[in-house]
């Protein structure tokens, strides 16, 4: 390896996503990722515990961003609207690069273990959202329903956005999905 270059985490993430897309998740090794990023395997492990963490390493940050947004939301908002404030912030955080989102979604969809991990991540976020809503005075069942519906709107919107060829801003897609959900529930 040559002289140290800044941005190793970003290079590792980009290299991993490209390799997962080209070769498949199981066929890509940590050594492959490190080599493509121009770093050593040791450097890889400074940033990620394993090759799955490249896809899920920001989960804790995403969850804390959502919870902080909920805590700062208008106190007069309904639990569902409050939960959607958190989902708006999640969309702002992860919706910066459609190409990255598209590749990430395709890699996860192609591997059942990664799909399971993604579902678990979103279930944990829903659980945290429900807790934050309870902290704001929502009933336990109301908080859980609001959290689950908001996460459903987010994940459905995310999937639409990630698979679209010319998508709108992720926040707009998530909000449109939420509006569809509200309409479906109110006419049911």
Can you put this structure into words, describing what you see?
With 188 residues, the chain is mainly alpha-helical. The protein has two domains: 8-53, Homeodomain-like (Arc Repressor Mutant, subunit A, Orthogonal Bundle), CATH 1.10.10; 58-186, Tetracycline Repressor, domain 2. It contains ten helices and no strands. It is elongated, with a radius of gyration of 18 Å.
Percentage of residues assigned to helices: over 70%
The CATH architecture of the largest domain is Orthogonal Bundle
Q: What would CATH call the homologous superfamily of the largest domain?
A: Tetracycline Repressor, domain 2
Q: Count the DSSP helices.
A: 10
- Bulk shape: elongated
Compute the gyration radius: what is it?
Answer: 18 Å
What is the total number of structural domains?
2
Mean pLDDT: 93
* Straight-line N-to-C gap: 61 Å
Which fold name is given in CATH as the topology of the largest domain? Tetracycline Repressor, domain 2
Q: Which CATH first-tier class of the largest domain would you pick?
A: Mainly Alpha
Q: Can you write the helix and strand succession as a string? A: HHHHHHHHHH
The SS-based structural class is mainly alpha
What profile does the largest beta sheet have? none
Kindly estimate the percentage of residues that lie in beta strands according to DSSP: under 5%
Number of strands: 0
- Give start-end ranges of low-pLDDT stretches: none
């Amino acid at each position: 390896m040559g002289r140290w270059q800044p941005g190793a985490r970003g290079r590792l993430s980009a290299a991993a996503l490209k390799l997962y897309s080209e070769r498949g998740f199981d066929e890509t090794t940590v050594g492959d990722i490190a080599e493509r990023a121009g770093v050593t395997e040791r450097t890889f492990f400074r940033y990620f515990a394993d090759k799955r963490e490249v896809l899920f390493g920001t989960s804790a940050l995403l969850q804390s961003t959502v919870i902080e947004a909920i805590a700062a939301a208008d106190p007069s908002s309904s639990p569902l609207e409050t939960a959607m404030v958190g989902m708006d912030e999640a969309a702002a955080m992860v919706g910066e690069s459609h190409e990255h989102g598209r590749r990430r979604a395709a890699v996860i969809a192609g591997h059942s273990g990664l799909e399971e991990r993604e579902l678990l991540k979103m279930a944990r976020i829903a659980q945290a959202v429900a807790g934050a809503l309870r902290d704001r005075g929502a009933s336990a069942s109301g908080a859980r329903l609001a959290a689950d519906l908001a996460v459903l709107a987010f994940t459905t919107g995310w999937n639409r956005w990630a698979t679209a060829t010319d998508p709108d801003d992720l926040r707009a897609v998530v909000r449109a999905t939420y509006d569809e959900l509200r309409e479906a529930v109110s006419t049911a």
